Each structure stands twice: as C-alpha cells, then as structure tokens.
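W.,

You were right to be curious about this one. When I first looked at the sequence I had no strong expectations either way, so I just let the prediction run and decided to look at it fresh. Below is the sequence, 274 residues in total, followed by the output.
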Amino acid sequence: MLPTERTLCVSIHDVAPATWDECARLAEAIRAVADIPLTWLVVPAYHRAGGDAARMDAGLAAALARGDELALHGYTHLDSGPHGLGWRDGFLRGVYSREGEFAALPAEEAARRIRLGLAWFAERGWPVSGFIAPAWLLGEGAWEALRGFRFEYTTTYTRFHLLAGGVACLSPFSPALVYAARNRSGRLLSPPTASLLAAGLARAPLVRLGLHPPDLRHPHLVRHAQHLVRQLLGTRAPLTKAGFAQRLQLAVPAGARPAAGGAQALRDWRMPWR
C-alpha cells in the first residue's frame, strides 16, 4: 500500500552554469510562497556554454545544506542518439523535445554517461539518489543501463519509479505538472492544464511540479506556479523526490518486490495507488 499522507515534490530542471541565474530565481519564487525542500535536476556537461560554474557549485552546496536534494539529470541534455523511422520516435524526439538525451542510446553508452555524471557528483562530495532523464525519455538501452546502478528512484512523465536492485517495484501514477514556455499556445494552455491535472490528482499520494529555466521569462507562469504551490500545500506535505522515495520504500511489502528481470520488467511493473 502506498503512503497515506499526500505529498508535493517541486523540482528545478536543467540546472547548469548557463542556466543557474534562472534556476536560482525560480527557487526564490517558490520560497517566496513557502520555504520548502526542492529537488534540483543537475546536468553535469550541459550542451549550452556560459555561466559561472563556481557560483553554481556554491549555490548548490548551499541548497544541500538547507535540506534540498540534487539529482542527476542526464549528462549533456542533448539528443545525439540514432533516430528511428516511426512516427512515435519522430514526434517524441522532434516535436515534443530535441533534448531527450537517453531516448535512443545503447545500454553501454547510457551507462557510460551515467558513470560520468556520478563521477562529477563524487568530485564534489555530493550525494545523489535519483536519476531523471532529460525530457523524461528513457529508451530500452537507458532502462537496461539503470539496472547497473544503485539509484533509489527515477521518474518518467507520468510515473515515479521506485528502484530496488535495479527493478521498478512501485510506480504511482503522477503526471508531471509543467509549463510549455517555448511557444505561445503552450504558454496559454499549460497553466489551465496544470490546474486540471492537480485537481484530478487530489487523492493521489504524489503531485510533482517541475519548473524549467524558460518559465522565468513569463511572469504569468511563475505566478501560476506560486498559486499552485500555495494551493497544494494546503493538503500536502512538501518533500524532495528522495524523501518521497524513502517513504515509498517503507510502504512496499517485501513480497511485492518483483524478481530482477529485463528492461521490460523494469519499465512495466505497476502497483496501483489507492
């Protein structure tokens, strides 16, 4: 059974020297509503140059000290894998996002990039318990690669996956609330869509709100995020994603954990939330 207390996880995506100012200001906007723990999704070798790496490192160290979490968010945040011929691949990697780094990587290359990312964290002495693929796109190779690491969780767009021994043993339905800031229609439609999703998840154990650097360029999106956080905190406890994963671990009966299997078992095992 899933935890009975309802929770809210707020994350700042695409954290890198080139985006640090925007990410820090997004965190300030959320903390203007409530001083809650945040999860920062860090990209060690972000494809866009610029920014002050030392200032970002200092800011993230301070975030850790105040109880925030840092998660590994891919390695380059740039899709360089081979493209397929199907319409689904074309949509996900051409329309939905062009930065789905782990959408089509072979398992060996996916594992190599994860190791590089973990080494970057280790150089700084920073803990990391979660891996979130850019654009939440995890191909077969990436799922297979995850089996070789000791992450506590990963997330896709629709689910939070608790990992145990490389196997997803609990994945509550919790579609991410995000804003499509890069185009006009997305800026108009994503706030009401996020509100509808939040209302539909009223009984769910988890609501995830994800903020991206481009959101900051549109004040109405930031105001909507602040409104959502204020509203959701009326009925939910704020946690980092690692904190939610730990709570899930306590809620999973030992007999509910599946035996280790292939990538299909890792991706498809489900326990419905109640």
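Here's what jumped out at me. The CA atoms of residues 1 and 253 lie 8 Å apart. And, maybe more interesting for your project: The two ends are 7 Å apart (CA to CA).

Coffee later to discuss?

I.
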